[in-house]
Specification:
The complex is a heterodimer.
Chain A: E1 3-11, H1 13-16, E2 25-28, H2 32-45, E3 49-53, H3 54-57, H4 61-66, E4 74-78, H5 87-100, H6 104-111
Chain B: H1 9-72, H2 74-82, E1 89-97, E2 100-107, H3 125-212
Antiparallel strand pairs in B: 1-2
Helix pairs in contact in B: 1-2, 1-3
The chains are: A alpha/beta, B mainly alpha.
């Protein structure tokens, strides 16, 4: 049932360091292999939410896909220190397209 | 083309029963899909709103952080942030949305306001600002995680349900209908064949009888 589970953040050092101050577990990783290993390790350890920088996320699409349909962990893209790639918003758009088959709703709102 | 089925009465009953089940399943799944789409749209709207807000605020915090690093130097910043005074934990639970198990997160509040994990002496005020910004953002981030995960899982489930609905509607149900038609026609054909055969036999019997008693052609 309800448990206390930690939050983690994965990404390049500069973007992730700040999170350490909040008591979020931070993992520095730059190489795709490192990132992937970090994500799997955190998932095994039972992290509930893994925030991952968009720059790191694009390097490990398979791992992200793998955890997409299970309740835990939630892998959430965040912009890193250099700014957003628009990946998070793209994720939402992909979801809409997948579920409804068309992107009518989003596009109208997005343009306005 | 329909697969070959045995044109028997038993097979026909079985198929009719299956067709009825399939039709009911189809209706149920369709309802499920519609309701899920409705929920999904709600969730995804929320998701979009939250993400836009979070990304904007996060960029702001990151900016302040870079300023702080420029002011203090990398080593000092690393040192200041090295030892958190608390750990951020969430309480997790599962919520059932149309039999999709989605997670919920709640940040565990460990007591009062957030405190900076370092002394004021060697750090710039920009760093304080960045850390406090991020700390204030944490609840939002966790809500974002929850909605986004829910949207992900719902989208996936909707896709699956839609596939099932389509498979039933366009493949299974037409196929079964065709098989049923095939069997009914075959059975009717057999029935007609039987009928003609019986009539023929009756004629033959009548002719035979006539041959045996040709002396009494009264009628």
């Amino acid at each position: 049932m309800a448990e206390q589970i930690k939050i983690a953040v994965v990404g390049d050092r500069d973007s992730v360091m700040l999170w350490g101050a909040l008591g979020v577990q931070t993992v520095f990783a730059d190489e795709p292999r490192e990132i992937e290993r970090a994500v799997h390790k955190l998932a095994r350890e039972g992290a509930a939410i893994i925030y991952i920088t968009e720059q790191a996320m694009v390097k490990i699409p398979e791992a992200v896909e793998k955890y997409k349909t299970v309740p835990f962990p939630a892998i959430i893209p965040i912009p890193n220190a250099e700014g957003s790639l628009g990946l998070g918003m793209k994720g939402i758009r992909d979801n809409i397209e997948k579920a409804i088959g068309a992107d009518l709703l989003f596009e109208q709102e997005g343009n306005s | 083309m329909a697969k070959l089925v045995n044109p028997t009465r038993m097979e026909l009953t079985r198929l009719k029963k299956r067709l009825k089940t399939a039709a009911r399943g189809h209706k149920l799944l369709k309802d499920k899909r519609d309701e899920m789409v409705r929920r999904f749209i709600e969730v995804v709207k929320e998701n979009k709103k939250r993400r836009a807000a979070v990304e904007q605020k996060l960029a702001q915090a990151m900016n302040r952080f870079s300023v702080a690093r420029a002011e203090m130097g990398n080593a000092a910043v690393t040192e200041a942030l090295l030892y958190p005074i608390r750990t951020a934990k969430v309480r997790t639970d599962l919520r059932n949305i149309m039999s999709v198990e989605t997670p919920t997160f709640r940040l565990l509040d460990n007591g009062g306001s957030f405190e900076l994990p370092y002394g004021f002496a060697f750090s710039s005020s920009e760093l304080d600002g960045a850390v406090l910004d991020l700390a204030a953002l944490l609840p939002d981030l966790i809500e974002l995680a929850e909605t986004e995960k829910t949207a992900n899982m719902l989208a996936d489930e909707i896709e699956k349900t839609r596939r099932r609905v389509n498979a039933l509607e366009h493949v299974m149900i037409p196929e079964m209908e065709q098989q049923i038609r095939y069997i009914t026609m075959k059975l009717e054909e057999n029935e007609r064949g039987n009928q003609t055969r019986l009539m023929k036999v009756k004629d033959m019997l009548a002719a035979e009888r006539e041959e045996e008693q040709p002396q009494a052609p009264t009628a």
